[in-house]
Specification:
Chain A is built from four helices and no strands. With about 90 residues, chain A is mostly helical. The longest helix of chain A is centred in the last third of the chain and has 33 residues. The chains are: A mainly alpha (about 90), B mainly alpha (about 190).
């Protein structure tokens, strides 16, 4: 009867691990499956999640933009009236 | 971009409070890993999709029960996946369906997405041998090679010590080597 060896040589170990690494490769789920799963569990799109999370950043930018715009308009208006008064 | 904002503890707390968007983030983060695990355990694309959906549905329904007692969320998810896959195998054996040994080809992460690589004969033979191993040994190989986890991480998922995982890994390789002896797979170093 053949007695099975209970040890692995270094060569066997590395060859076996190389075979396993070549066989058990991470796979990317097809996009249609990802989409179907998302619909099935009723999750919003990834982009929507990111957008929702960034709502406060967007509000901050809008607020900053409006304030900056108002400052520019006030400065231009003041300069305009100043120049007008000097010419009169 | 998603990762920069991702604070798992915070997201988990929000998800446990019923925030669907927070759970959506967890879904995005773990979908690939769970899908890979289930895919290799079932060898069937259709069932992998179905079981992956059920893993996340079950996780969503029970996330309130998840408490971090040194077991990471990923380990909790893998345990759900493991239980569902075990039920799936039990149901199949009851129905006595013909086992599917051929794992369908999916492009792996390094492959060109447009190109489906045909697995070599050796790879499909090895896959068949892996799928004949006891479930915990299959888990170990999937977590080690597909997920690139360390023995310590695998131990947390399997509820074993790092040493026990190392020992199980060695026994698994021995068993595979002995089975490979009967197949046309070369273990000579090229």
């Amino acid at each position: 009867m053949n007695k099975l060896k209970t040890t692995l040589s270094d060569d066997q170990l590395s060859a076996l691990e190389a075979h396993l690494a070549g066989t058990l490769k991470p796979v990317t789920p097809p996009m249609e499956i990802v989409q179907r799963l998302r619909n099935r569990i009723h999750f919003p799109e990834r982009q929507v999640i990111v957008l929702r999370l960034r709502d406060w950043q967007r509000m901050f930018l809008v607020f900053g933009g409006v304030m900056s715009g108002m400052l520019v308009m006030i400065t231009v208006a003041r300069a305009f009236f100043y120049l007008m008064r000097r010419h009169m | 971009m998603l990762d920069k904002e991702f604070n798992e503890e915070d997201v988990l707390t929000r998800a446990a409070q019923g925030d669907r968007d927070a759970f959506g983030l967890l879904y995005e983060r773990y979908l690939d890993r769970i899908f890979n695990y289930v895919y290799y355990r079932t060898g069937n694309l259709h069932d992998a999709e179905d079981l992956t959906a059920r893993v996340f549905q079950r996780a969503m329904n029970h996330i309130k029960n998840y408490t971090d007692r040194g077991v990471p969320f990923s380990a909790w998810l893998y345990r759900i996946a493991h239980n569902l896959v075990a039920n799936w195998h039990r149901d199949r054996s009851r129905r006595q369906e013909i086992p599917i040994n051929d794992v369908p080809v999916l492009p792996s992460k390094g492959d060109h997405p447009e190109r489906n690589l045909v697995r070599s004969q050796e790879e499909s033979t090895l896959l068949k041998l892996i799928r004949r191993l006891p479930p915990e040994r299959q888990n170990l190989l999937i977590l080690k090679f597909v997920e690139n986890m360390s023995n310590a991480e695998i131990g947390k998922i399997m509820g074993r010590s790092e040493g026990a995982v190392k020992s199980l890994y060695h026994r698994t390789l021995l068993s595979l080597r002995d089975q490979i002896g009967d197949q046309h797979i070369s273990l000579d170093n090229e």
